[in-house]
Amino acid sequence: MKRAAVTLAALAFAGLTGAAMLELSAPPVRLAAQVAANIERSGVAHPVTAVLLNFRGYDTLLEIAVLLIALVGLTAVARRDDAAPAPSAAEPVLQTLARLAAPLMALVAVYLLWAGAFRPGGAFQAGAVLAAAAVLLNLARLLPAWTSPGAGLRWGLAAGFLVFLIVAAATIGEGALLQYPPAWAGGLILAIEAGLAVSLGLTLAGLFLFLSEEERP
Amino acid sequence: MTTGLLFALAGAALFAMGAAGVVLLAQILRRILAFNVMGSGAFLALVGLAQRDGAADPVPQAMVLTGIVVAVAATALALALARRYRALTGRDALAGDD
Fold it and tell me: Which of A33, A41, A78, A96 is 20 to 30 Å from the Cα of A133, by its Cα?
């Protein structure tokens, strides 16, 4: 009974939403044209990076704060067994491949960070590649799972948010939050992105590594 | 019909499927996954509707990029809570929800 009712409601919702999408008129505001008109003043040449870190910088600022809070919440509920997990048999092929891949992934992350200014790429992609390298090393048992974050790790996790906040505080005199002086915008965005990439990589890696210790078979 | 509109329609279908899954599925892990399907549908509709006239719009793309990372973090937190719940109670469905 419940299953039929919910299925019917979902079907009706999908049908109504789809019909509404087909009826939509042209948007009254052309955001893409506004971005293209102001891209020269943003300090970067790629529109998505310009939106993320200049025009809508406060969204990204709040996002990195949300990530930090999620990780803090996760470390609070993750169970920490003091008993060390039994070391399993080393897998030489996997470990050799992981040793080869990890430095290359770090290199790719730096490239993505640099490329974000003028083509698809940027801090998020760089952070995701860094985190994937950490997960790969953990799965190959070259990197132990994290238990309690030490001082260095804490500063690394907070670096992106701190750099972002410092830039926001320093440029507050420009009139609006995160409105950079056009001459400095490129350098400021690269500095923020570098901090973001490090913090995002550590945060995303932490989401996996703080949990990977438990219940390992 | 443009490709963007097709993406948006697929997004609406995914959202409805995910919402039905959140209501109907009992296990916490399946609910978390269904919630992620819902989120993916919302992202697809956002990006698809913005480019329904053919030209890509960087503003919703940047918003969705932000949203994906937040969704990953929220999923990880939900999984941590689900594991803790399972470790404490030995159950993988919420109480009173069988």
Answer: A78
Residue in chain A nearest B53 by alpha carbon = A26
CA atoms of B5 and B52, how far apart (whole Å): 5
- What are the two backbone dihedrals, phi and then psi, of residue A171, each rounded to the nearest 5 degrees? -100, 15
On whether the pTM is more than 0.90, the answer is no
Q: Is the dihedral of CA A185, A187, A190, A192 positive or negative?
A: negative
For residue A164, which of A99, A90, A68, A29 has the smallest C-alpha distance? Answer: A68
Closest Cα in chain A, distance from residue B69 (Å): 8
What distance lies between CA A176 and its chain's CA centroid? 25
Residues in B closer than 8 angstroms to A131, CB to CB, are none
Measured at the CA of B53, the angle between CA B47 and CA B56, to 5 degrees, comes to 45
Non-local (6+) Cβ contacts of A109 within 8 A are A126, A127, A129, A130, A133, A197, A201
A158 burial type by CB count under 10 A (0-12 exposed, 13-18 middle, 19+ buried): middle
| A166-203: pLDDT as tens digits | 988 888 877 777 788 878 888 888 889 999 999 999 99
| CATH tag for B3-89 (out of 1.10.287.3510, 2.40.340.10, 1.10.10.10, 3.40.50.2300) | 1.10.287.3510
Domain ranges of chain B: 3-89
Q: Is the pLDDT of residue B32 over 90?
A: yes
ipTM of the complex in this document:
0.85
The answer to whether B23 contacts A21, with C-beta atoms less than 8 Å apart, is: no
Task: Output the six-digit token pair for A70.
Answer: 């999620």
pLDDT at A77: 86
Q: Please give the angle made by the CA atoms of A135, A138 and A141, to the nearest 5 degrees.
A: 155
